[in-house]
Amino acid sequence: MMKKILIIGTIASSMAFAKGFNNNNSMTTGQGMGGTQGKNYSQVANLTEAQQKDLADLKAKHQKAIAPLMLDKQEKELAIKKELLADKPNWTKIESLVKEKEAIESKAELQILKNRAEVKDKFGLDFGNDFGKGHR
After folding, report:
1. From CA 45, how far away is CA 36, in angstroms rounded?
2. What sign results for the dihedral spanned by CA atoms 73, 99, 129, 119?
3. 84: exposed, middle or buried (C-beta count within 10 Å: 0-12, 13-18, 19+)?
4. What is the pLDDT of residues 60-114, one digit of tens each?
5. What is residue 27's three-state secondary structure?
6. 10 Å Cβ neighbour count for 127?
7. Which sign, positive or negative, has the C-alpha torsion 15, 36, 39, 111?
8. pLDDT tens, 108-134?
9. How far is Cα 55 from Cα 30, in angstroms, rounded to an integer?
10. Does residue 41 sit in helix, strand or coil?
């Protein structure tokens, strides 16, 4: 159960990271970043325009990699819900769907961790420590 919560939290934080940029390739301070809004904005603001463009390109690449995984996960969740609505749910099928969903979540978490490492390596930015945990 704890593993699922961790995976879901990681996915949610990735989505928050993805929504944290506006069309001007800079961080927004009003949405998506939990309690780290000001810190992340100042980190990005310290980058050159070229670095901010590279960061935006990296973000786009990350979103492109994560989007199909998120769609697959949602499809599995819908299939599970559909099976649970049946008069006699097929628990073997549900178990299989849950395992497939967990495998997708693992792939997404790995992609998120790789993205964070790449951002840190290229730009020295660390969006991973308190990411998505809200105000403290």
Report:
1. 14
2. negative
3. exposed
4. 999 999 999 999 999 999 999 999 999 999 999 999 999 999 999 999 999 999 9
5. strand
6. 24
7. negative
8. 999 999 999 999 998 888 876 544 444
9. 19
10. helix
